[in-house]
Amino acid sequence: QMRLVESGGGLVQPGGSLRLSCAASGSIRSIVSLSWYRQAPGKQREFVAVTANKGGRLYAESVRGRFTISRDDAENKLYLEMNNLKPEDTAVYYCNIPSMGIWGQGTQVTVSS
To answer: What span, in angstroms and rounded, lies between the C-alpha atoms of 19 and 30?
Structure first.
């Protein structure tokens, strides 16, 4: 079964940037949609962004204009470029294959001065 492994999280100051990666254990070329979600302490997991294999992208209102989702089908990777980070972006970030119900283990992002 496909496995997903996130990396790239860490501690960053407000206004800073991070790039998250999600490595898949198999080919993602035929997978239409790949997404990122996040879960802050005491809150439900929420949608962040989704990308389709034909280039379409959607973002949550709270991250639009600051985050960019992308995929590299040759490398079987999904990315999330996060700029102008805010304390409210602090959460565990998960990558997801919606059609398969597969989730990674998550990577912690903490935005704090």
So the answer is: 24
